[in-house]
Structures are given as structure tokens and as C-alpha cells.
Amino acid sequence: MAGLRFSREHAEHIRDVLSGRVAPAPARDAATVALFRAGRGGGIRVYLLRRKATMAFAAGAYVFPGGSVDPRDTDQAVAWAGPSPAEWGRVFRADEATARGLVCAAVRETFEESGVLLAGPGPGSVVADTRGDDWEADRLALIDRSLAFADFLAKRGLVLRSDLLKPWAHWITPEAETRRYDTRFFVAVLPEGQRTRDVGGEADQVEWRRPAEALAMADAGEIFLMPPTYRTLSELARHDSVESVLGEEREIVTVLPRVVEVDGEFRLESA
């Protein structure tokens, strides 16, 4: 892998962490969702957002919808259908409250960053359309945290559909980084009738891409993908249908890459 470039200040922090002079920053719980759909002519397409160049973390990178767990995401009042928080906890080796927060964050962040809502009036249904001024007002209220996710669902008489999520991976930001996340990756199919939309916020561009196409663009230097995104797209590129992705058996293994310095150059090594 090519050497990693950092600012002088960041490089000094990395050396301080590697030498033990500074303790690693704590990793915040986070969730991200690779939203995908069947592609015209076969295969699958994955929804990607390009983070604004002004963002403090992963500026300019193409990512899946996702973000940190809001403390209120662990609220037991969240209406729920599908595998329970306890079941998700066993999958991700997390306690029940953490698992509840991760699943809620996955659904909430997907709605905030794509307009797609993995929820419905009941266990066997899903919202058909989330367009309209009233939906947009709620989305913005979720983003500025003036509206809790549990209250949003209750207001609309909806239940979170945890069965629409499939666990995929678990990545933790290297200890040498200044901003760190303990991120669980999910995949989910775009619900029938719903449409993604360019909702702005942290992203300045959104698009649907074949996984292999996004990987080729990254290899050519046309787009920037962080290692977890690159790995996930590589795994999804092996599938030629929605059914194939959903049918893959996954064992969730925690990946904690390390930043190492070799001859004055920083490199990333996967554990």
C-alpha cells in the first residue's frame, strides 16, 4: 500500500501514540449502511456519498450513509420489529443497549443521509414514500437533534424494521488517528417504492455505482475510498444479484488496522 500522507501536526500525534507518549483517543460507537438495489441489466448498484472537503473526518471520501450513535438511540421506547437488540448484540459481540443504539443509528442515519427509511406501520410493511415537506422537516429535526428517533417513529406510528438490515462487518479506526470510531457495517436493500435523493448536509455529491466500477475509479485515483469502504465494495462486487448478497453467510470479525512508520513513511497494516 502506498504511503499515507498527514499534516505535520497529525504526524506528530501519530508518533506520540506509537511511542506511548499519548494515549489513543476513545473510539465512538457508529453504524454505517451499504444501501443497494438491483441494477438495470443485472448486478447490483450501491449508494455512495462524497463527503464535503470541509469535513473534519474523511474529507472528500466516498462513503456509505452512517454516523455516530446518538445517546438517545439506545432508548427502549423505540418501536421495534425484527431481530431483537439482544440478538444483534450476539452478532456484534456487544451488550444489548449498545446493539440497540447501533441498529437505531443505522436506520436513523440512512434516513438522514439518503431519505430512505427502514421502518413501516407494522412488522410486515415498510414506508412507501418519504418525499414531501413534512418528511423533510422531520429529517432536518433529526439531524439537528431537536427530534429523537424514538419520538419520530412514535409520531408517525412506525416501527423500526431491524429485519431489513443484514450485519456485514466491524471496523475500528486505527489507534493513531485523532478521531476514532467503532463502526458496525450493515447492508440493506432499497425498499420498494422508496427513492434516494440528494439531501445535502455532510455530502456534496451522491450516486449509485456498481461496486466494481467504484473500485476501478478508486484504483485510477478518480475517487477516494477509505479502507473499510474499499473492502466492503470488494466483497459486494463478488455478487451478481440482491439475493446473492442477502444469502451470504457472514462471520463478523473485528478489524483494527495499525498505522506504522517505516523509513519515515506511514503505512496502514490490517490486523
Automatic annotation (TrEMBL):
InterPro entries: NUDIX_hydrolase-like_dom_sf, NUDIX_hydrolase_dom, NUDT19. Its cofactor is Mg(2+); Mn(2+). It comes from the Bacteria. GO terms for molecular function: hydrolase activity. Keywords: Hydrolase, Magnesium, Manganese, Metal-binding. Residues 26-231 form the Nudix hydrolase domain. The keyword Cell cycle does not apply. The keyword Cell inner membrane does not apply. SUPFAM superfamilies: Nudix. This is NUDIX hydrolase.
